[in-house]
Amino acid sequence: MAQSGAGSASEQSWNGQRLGLPASGVGSLAGFGQRVVALALDWALSSVAALLLGMRYASPTYNLSVFIFTGALIWLATAATGASLGQHAVGIGVARLTGGRLPLFHSLVRTLVMMLVFPAVITDSDGRGLHDKAVGSAVVKTR
């Protein structure tokens, strides 16, 4: 019996197939490792910014500032360019499933949900985090 090309999650051949995304290459879903590296780069940039502003490493002010800087960096860069600086560095970006970049408000909602951490690591059958599901986006390869 032949299987149809689009069906339930158990019938899909690759992550993103049921979303209409390609199996590989530009536009395909980014892997978990790429997303983690991008976040680590954004966090590192925010750490450097806090240190350059004279904050004492690992102090409560430093920790809170790095958290806020990281969120602001991801929010604004994603809204403006479709990817945070860390995502640009690893060749991934955030795309709306309906096409184009996320509007400023959707980017804010996505970032706030992601910064809660747990929703970002809870994923669907395609590997999309709850923060992406909340705004109808996916992290895809850009190169």
Q: Can you tell me the number of structural domains?
A: 1
Shape: elongated
Largest sheet: 2 strands, antiparallel
Which percent band covers the strand fraction? 5-15%
Query: How widely separated are the two ends?
Result: 37 Å
- Global structural class: mainly alpha
Tally of helical runs: 6
Mean pLDDT: 90
The radius of gyration over CA amounts to: 17 Å
Query: Which series of helices and strands comes N to C?
Result: HHHEHHHE
Strands, total number: 2
Spans of at least 5 consecutive residues with low confidence:
1-7
Helix percentage? 40-55%
Report strand order across the widest sheet: 1-2
Written account of the structure:
- It is built from 6 helices and 2 strands, in the order αααβαααβ.
- With 143 residues, it is mainly alpha-helical.
- The protein has one domain (27-141).
- The protein has a two-stranded antiparallel ribbon.
- The N and C termini lie far apart (37 Å).
